[in-house]
Amino acid sequence: MSTGTTKLDVVVSDVVPVNELVTRFHFRRRDGELLPTFSGGAHVVVEMRDGDRTRLNPYSLMGSPLDTREYTISVRRDDVGRGGSLFMHRSVKPGLEMVISYPAAPHRSAPMPMCCASATTAGSGSIMTTLTSASSSTACCRCNRSGRISMSAARLG
């Protein structure tokens, strides 16, 4: 996988354990400038230097797309995955310098008149981002949410 886009030099500004499986990571630009704006559903590809191996994992951006001081992602630890989430949980600490891609959003051919958001354990971070994007436009926004919440789900917002 390649990020295929311009990259951003960032520093990890905070690492917040949400529960035993989910950790939230905050990134700021190394040069202190604001980050590019993003829209609901956007993700960044995080480059992880793991010894002589570089891992590239996409993560959904959380929070308000209007606040470009920092980006926030939540990562659910997968003990039997390919290693990216384990690297994030075990090796990433505040102050670590990393590289991420510019935000990429799903392609939409026309503005959606209504925002329909749903969440799974892995993708719940983008609900608030999607709703914030929709509510800041002239679109009507309604959120219907159903399903189970487990302790391993990332918290909204």
List the helices and strands and how they pair.
Elements: E1 7-17, E2 22-29, E3 43-50, E4 53-60, E5 71-76, H1 84-91, E6 97-101, E7 114-115, H2 125-135, E8 140-141
Parallel strand pairs: 7-8
Antiparallel strand pairs: 1-2, 1-6, 2-5, 3-4, 3-6
Polypeptide structure, described:
By secondary structure, the protein is mostly beta strands. The protein has a domain at 7-101: Translation factors (Elongation Factor Tu (Ef-tu), domain 3, Beta Barrel). Helices cover 12% and strands 32% of the residues. The protein has 2 helices and 8 strands, in the order βββββαββαβ. The chain has helices spanning 84-91, 125-135; strands spanning 7-17, 22-29, 43-50, 53-60, 71-76, 97-101, 114-115, 140-141. Strands 4-3-6-1-2-5 form a 6-stranded antiparallel β-sheet, covered by helices on one side. The chain starts with 6 loop residues before the first strand and ends in a 16-residue tail after the last strand. The model is unreliable at 112-116 and 119-124 (pLDDT under 50).
